[in-house]
Design brief:
This protein has 336 residues and is of the alpha+beta class. It is 27% helix and 23% strand. Pfam families: 2OG-FeII_Oxy, DIOX_N.
């Protein structure tokens, strides 16, 4: 069953091979032109159940500094926990549009349901992303607003809470290893981002079939402004990362969690770890859905390069600022 939004998009097309002009990217962004085909470039897949944390830290640090992106397997989250999360999210997006709109964003709020979220200014034009989405915080308890959590399907809350509980352990292990990989104490990187007050923001991206996937994008090129993004997709590929100016497809790895290094980790590491530039493509025949969780500092928490990583030979490359101020500048395309 397709959403009402998909039907409304389709109704504006003049043929099966057309899409509305406000979804067509400029040629230098069109995936049909800019995607690299066969390549020897390999995206790291890391087993994180290695009991040798020092060895694991080196592997994760290498991927974080060279690419800013990797996938982790043997992470300990049971398959049925991920299945339940994905089933509940898929069922929500298959509801009638008027029911989904009960969870629409409120003025000034990032949380809630929205359609065609991604818009960029290209001269006088606004180019839309081929995507619907739902945003809401899932941790810690004091920042959760259940007004934005779907009540239908009934399993949504339980499935989301259990997945969040399991994901926190994975996140903590990644923070420890990345911190050790910088020569820091295991707790320092997480503490530098807010510690136990770190906020987990879940987003469900719903990318319906697109008649011209060579012309459109689900989400345009960007880096995440969070610390880390931990993502589980469905089986439909669509994620791409940029390496040395070229765009590469990310293969779907069953049972893996996709890890993006975000802006705040790049800042705290003083550029040692790289925020990955990425985008999402869409499929002509299949619906792609992804569940990223963004690990964000509290709004009033100040993030900057960790002092131990700064010296005369390696001066600070980034300003220290409150996360809310960083986010405001990024969202409004202002200098940092």
């Amino acid at each position: 069953m397709e959403t009402a939004r998909v039907q409304s998009v389709a109704s504006t097309c003049t043929s099966k091979e057309d899409i509305p002009s406000d979804f067509i990217r400029p040629e230098n962004e069109q995936p049909g032109i800019t995607t690299v085909g066969s390549t020897d470039f390999e995206i790291p897949v890391i087993e994180i159940n290695d009991s040798d944390e020092e060895r694991l830290a080196k592997v994760i640090a290498k991927a974080s500094s060279e690419i800013g992106f990797f996938q982790v397997t043997n992470h300990g989250i049971p398959r049925d926990v991920i299945d339940n999360l994905q089933r509940a999210g898929k069922e929500f997006f298959e509801l009638p549009v008027q029911e989904k709109e009960e969870y629409s964003k409120l003025p000034g709020s990032l949380e809630g349901y929205g359609t065609a979220l991604q818009k960029e200014s290209e001269g006088k034009e606004n180019i839309k992303g081929w995507v619907d989405h739902l945003f809401h915080r899932v941790w810690p308890p004091h920042v959760i607003n259940h007004r934005f959590w779907p009540k239908n399907p009934q399993s949504y809350r339980e499935a989301t809470e259990e997945y969040t509980k399991q994901l926190r352990g994975v996140a903590d292990k990644l923070f420890r290893c990345m911190s050790i990989g910088l020569g820091l104490e295991a707790n320092e990187l997480k503490d530098g981002a807010g510690g136990e007050n770190l906020e987990y923001m879940m987003k469900i991206n719903y990318y319906p079939p697109c008649p011209r996937p060579d012309l459109a994008l689900g989400v345009p090129a960007h880096t995440d402004m969070s610390t880390l993004t931990l993502l589980v997709p469905n089986e439909v590929p669509g994620l791409q990362i940029c390496k040395d100016g070229s765009w590469y497809n990310v293969d779907y790895v069953p049972d893996a969690i996709v890890v993006h290094i975000g802006d705040q980790i790049e800042i705290m590491s003083n550029g040692k770890y790289k925020a990955v530039l990425h985008r999402t493509t869409v499929d002509k025949h299949r619906t792609r859905i992804s569940w990223p969780v963004f690990l964000e500092p509290p709004a009033d928490f100040t993030v900057g390069p960790i002092p131990k990583l700064i010296n005369d030979e390696n001066p600070a490359k980034y300003k220290s600022k409150k996360y809310r101020d960083y986010a405001y500048c990024k969202l409004n395309k202002l200098p940092q």
